[in-house]
Amino acid sequence: MSFDSIEFAAFSIAVVVVLNLLRGMAARLAAILVVNLVFIASFVSAPEQAIPLAGFVAAGYAAVRVAPRVGARGLWPLIAAVVALFIWLKQYTIAGFLPSFDSFPYLTVGLSYILFRVLHLIVDANQGALRPPGPLAYLAYLLFFLTFVSGPIQRYEDFARQASEPALPRTVVVIDRAFNRIVLGLFLVAVVTQVTSYVFHHIEPRLYDGLSSGRFGAKLLVLYVGAAVGFLVHLYLNFVGYMHMVIGVGTLCGFALPENFDRPYLSKNFLDFWSRWHITLSNWFKFYIFNPTLKALAGRWGTPASMPYLGAVAFFVTFGIMGVWHGSTIVFVFYGLFLGLGVAINKLYQVEMARRLGRQSYRTLCRRFWYRRLSNAATIAYFAVALTCVWIPAGPAGAMATPLGATLGAAAFLVITGGFVVAGPIIVGIAALWRRLPPLGDLGQGYAAPVAVGVKLFVVVVMIAMIDTGSAPEFVYKVF
Amino acid sequence: MLHYDEAKARLGVIFREVFDDESIEIFDAMTADDLDEWDSLSHITLVLAVEREFGLKLKAAEVGALANVGEMIKLLMERGSP
To answer: Which residue of B has its CA nearest to A350?
Structure first.
């Protein structure tokens, strides 16, 4: 069931009505579980296709229940077992020696995000930070239809609290804002990213032809910059659009789902970028990979002088794992290490600059307009180039792993940086203007507000009905 | 259970040591935005120093969720050793 389909719109309306009528945690959890199962059933053509997913969920539950009883030493075998099962089901190359199910097309949608939620439960239950949920709460949380496909990764304690008691008051203003987000999300996914998808896919084949020629030139650079920036814009708007829809529907169901983006185009540097882009995933990696890794390293070898270097190691470990999570090929390993290199260089650069200039002078430099512009633009350019690993197919990826590819990447980084130095303030200006606009259709108080909500519901249904859902771009992150 | 004033005073000493700045005065609403040097690396240095000073071991969820000084003080009042 696609989020921009008429089926999902009808399904969501029914779910919103049911969840708003029910009182009490058990009833709401039971309803959520039924809704989850109906939603997941829409992804399979035969029930047996969901058996591996069900097996993974069951294994996860057993691990969560046993986690509080195994102590700190027993935590690692539990995590290893769950991750190994995930690797097998996702058919990573490393699990090639295990039996595969090539002839059996089973459901893997949502598996990655289920893994994150299961590991969060295992670790926190093991450390006594939460009580393991019962089977009903576990299934309602783990398979929650709004976050099933690609997050956001909500923490269990927040989900449980909101399942018990709606997070936001059911006022017309709250409902109106939820509809605003749904309308905006639908517009971004079904209309705007149709355009960005077209632009990107229009450039792609020309770029691959150019790469196969093996010669660096201005035309090839323009094509590569176009593809890199085109994909970044497409990914951002596509992901943000889906999040608007998910969070909007979540609000109507009584859930305050966590935000996944905070204007990443404003990032001060590459470290800051990760607190603004795919925030819930970044936080998950911070909570469960980066912090424990750095804590373990610092506990053993930590001195004020060594901390930046230990931090660099922790960044490489964290982003290396994040890269492998995106895909099992060597390209994704490189992607993770490239991102890790970016944050490690960023951190070590900060330390070195503070040492050379002195803290106060470096602070002053960071506040200068030209420096902020340059730092912001270089951040965006670095990420745009890194994302090549996500969109480039295996064949052309080979060409990128040559001196030609390295030259192209470096030149594109400089060109995109220069371009964003100029374009950045324009984007920021447009975004600021957008945020200053009065809420979409906010007609004020009294009788007009329910009318506005009704009109927006009508607009949503009409927009979906008008869209040829088959041609709307897929949610990019669904594949991970 | 630790008293608020004591937890805050001992935490203040840790902040001044970790960030090597005698002028730091902590307050409940203080976050990383109020202190340029408070980043993901110094956060872990801070956590290790807090664990040593207050004789406790913070859980992964606690380390990640400690966003401001007020939350730290509250946690130390509940779990910190006198």
So the answer is: B37
